[in-house]
Specification:
Phage tail protein beta-alpha-beta fold; Thrombin, subunit H; mainly beta; 7-stranded antiparallel sheet; 12 strands
């Protein structure tokens, strides 16, 4: 099977500041029902001082917990430029490999901000609230940009979040209400699970 390649421009910003390291690869996995995962690999030629064997990792570890934005804009005629991709996430892990020959490898791992909603398993009770009211209230507790949360019909007389993270509970509520909850790369949405548009 032939591999189709599309030239693209890639811009990465950490806390709104463009990073200008030598980026060797970018991998973005976007899931329908889970958190998006981003891995950026940087190759850096060492600039070690004469009394040190390895570089100071401080330039990279300061990224931990920072916001990261990835913009990929296709160029050429294979893909329409209107299909540019933007991903907004948070850096969760930084790995640094130093080698004796002075070539250092840095891997920056990031996830969609929805990862914070999986931080703790908890119990909660709700009464006389609709699924969309509950979801909107839970999303308000996190630094997640909210897109469209469509109203659901009816109200629960009583509903329980039992030994679930907020993320799992939101996904379950959406499914039970005939809705589809997802992170678009920029914002969190909940809308009816139907549609006729397809993407090739």
């Amino acid at each position: 099977m032939a591999l189709l390649e599309t030239p693209a421009e890639c811009l990465i910003r950490v806390d709104n500041e463009e990073i200008r390291f030598n980026i060797s690869s970018v991998r973005l996995d976007q899931f329908i029902d889970s958190h998006h995962q981003l891995v950026i690999q940087i190759q850096q030629v060492g600039k070690k001082a004469s009394d040190q064997d390895f570089d100071d990792p401080g330039d990279y570890t300061k990224f931990l917990g920072s916001n990261i934005t990835l913009n990929i804009k296709p160029s050429g005629s294979m893909v329409d430029e209107a299909r540019a991709l933007e991903f907004i996430g948070v850096i969760t892990d930084v790995q640094l490999e130093n080698s004796i020959d002075g070539l250092n490898m840095v891997r920056i791992h990031a996830a969609s901000p929805t990862i914070a909603m999986d931080g703790a398993i908890k119990n909660a009770h709700y009464h006389e609230k609709s699924a969309s009211d509950i979801v909107s209230g839970l999303l308000g507790n996190y630094q997640v940009t909210v897109g469209t949360v469509e109203s659901t019909s009816g109200k629960y007389k009583f509903d329980t979040q039992y030994r679930e993270s907020d993320f799992d509970y939101i996904m379950r509520l959406a499914t039970a209400s005939g809705m589809f909850a997802w992170y678009s790369g920029r914002d969190f949405n909940m809308s009816p699970a139907n549609g006729s548009n397809t993407v090739e």
